[in-house]
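Async update (no meeting this week)

Hi team, since we skipped the sync, here's where things stand on the single-chain job. The sequence we agreed to prioritize is pasted below, unchanged from the tracker. I ran it this morning and attached the output directly underneath so nobody has to dig for it. Comments welcome in thread, and please keep replies under the output.
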Amino acid sequence: MARQVWLPLLATVSTVALASPAQAAATGVASVAGTTIVQFKAAAKKQNRIVVTRSGNTVTLDDRVAIKAGPGCKAVKKDKTKVTCKPSQAPTRIRVYAYDLADSITNRTSLPFSASGGSGDDVITGGSAADALYGGAGADTVRGNGGHDSIWGDAGDDRIYGDAGNDKIYAWTGFNTVYGGAGDDHIEVWTGGSRVWGDAGKDTIYGSHSADRILGGDGPDELFGQGGNDVLDGGADRDYLRGGDGGDSLNGSAGNDSIDGDGGNDLLAGGAGDDVLQGSSGDDRVYGEAGADRLIAHAFDGDSRTDGHGADRYAGGAGDDTVSYASYFNSNVSADPDGVSGDDGADGERDTIATDVENIWGGAGNDRLIGGPGDNFLSGGAGNDRLEGRGGADMLYGNEGDDFLDGGDDGVADTLDGFEGRDVCAQWPLDFAQRCE
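Output:
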């Protein structure tokens, strides 16, 4: 969806960027376009330091090199580097087009502002309104400085700061560093090695198809690693993280997060909060950490290890944690939280469930689920399942199929519910059983 939005934006920016070289002159020209727009087109081979200010309906452009006053503008006496422009109506937008070399463009007005740095290592600073800032080629520093801005980095190793406001930021080729700032930002990076900080707000961030580092910051963020070996950290609040292809490291941090490793051999850590973690394909390590977490196994077809479904490791951490095989429709699952390496999952899957996982959900096959020494909840799902509670006050739920339920002779009261089917319950003296034959 984000890539579809990009095309019209790209076309618009290309028009802006190509306009300045074609119209570059020996001296930069300031003019009024129409009745409300003030614009400045810099000269070639000049290093500009452009500062834009406003007083009433008058806009002043001040540079370090000479400026020519075009239609609607006047030269300032005894200062050939400054002009004033007064549209026939109140100004509504300012446009500045630099050319080559390392230029500086600063907007100190509250008017919407469009700026193109051209080639060179430029520094562009917007104002408090909604700005459209285009760095152009070179290692640029672009700052939105408030308002709902749209910022494009283009080629080069850029540093982009959205600052406050709901910004849209697109960092193209180069090793880019992006700070979204406060606000609900949309950020895309297009080449690997980029570093992105969403900061406060509800941010949506897309990495490249190479290795990126993305930090959501405060707020309910959505982070997409895409390809490559990415590092994603949701930060505070309820976040959604999706690694994409590659061996990713995904950390939900604080909040009730949803984490999907997608392709590759991933490391998933829920952090504090009640998280949902899904390893997907690959040999993943999944750690719920603090909170009541749900660890979802990726569906395994049982044919062979070459099908792309990996040997995953599940660790619950503090809280009441669940490993779910509920998406397994064609495989028989064997699972127990004993920490023994490779003895869980479907035949040939070789998952490992750590001892700090309390609950296990089976799939549609004929599953065998065994609890640990503590209090467990085991749900067989469809199929003819065998559920064994072992130690602790367990809850065993047979669900559909002809199931066998045994809480264990451990002197603790268990709850057994066969639900549908011809179920058999091994009822010990303290146990409560229902819907069993």
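Quick observations from my side:
Confidence is low (pLDDT under 50) at residues 1-23, 301-308.
Helices lie at 2-22.
Reply here if anything looks off.
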